[in-house]
From TrEMBL:
This is RING-type E3 ubiquitin transferase. One of its GO terms (biological process) is protein ubiquitination. It is found in: Cytoplasmic vesicle membrane; Early endosome membrane. It holds the Pfam family RINGv. Its EC number is 2.3.2.27. It is a multi-pass membrane protein. GO terms for molecular function: ligase activity; ubiquitin protein ligase activity; zinc ion binding. Its main location: membrane.
Length: 93
């Protein structure tokens, strides 16, 4: 089944409330998401766990999709545990 998730960052705030980062990437001058490797032009990049540098930034939607696909609730790199709330999606959206 598919789920709608709200993910809280390390400070307890929802990821949508976490500030945008300005971390520099080793590959170019713009920060990028560690999942999709895109920049922040379409969606802000967040830092929801203890990872630093180029591995520390991620889009909220990429993180939610990864957590749903992997059926886990922690960062695979730094082992930070996210406060994940999984809710069944409504039948009609």
């Amino acid at each position: 089944p598919r789920y709608v998730m709200q993910v809280a960052a390390k400070d307890g705030q929802l990821l949508s409330a976490v500030r945008t980062l300005a971390t520099q990437s080793l590959f170019n001058d713009r920060p990028m998401c560690r999942i999709c490797h895109e920049g922040s032009s379409q969606e802000d990049l967040l830092s929801p766990c203890e990872c630093m540098g180029t591995l520390g930034t991620i889009h909220r939607s990429c993180l939610e999709h990864w957590l749903s696909s992997s059926n886990t609730s922690y960062c695979e790199l730094c082992h930070f545990r996210f406060a994940v709330e999984r809710k069944p999606r409504p039948l009609v959206e």
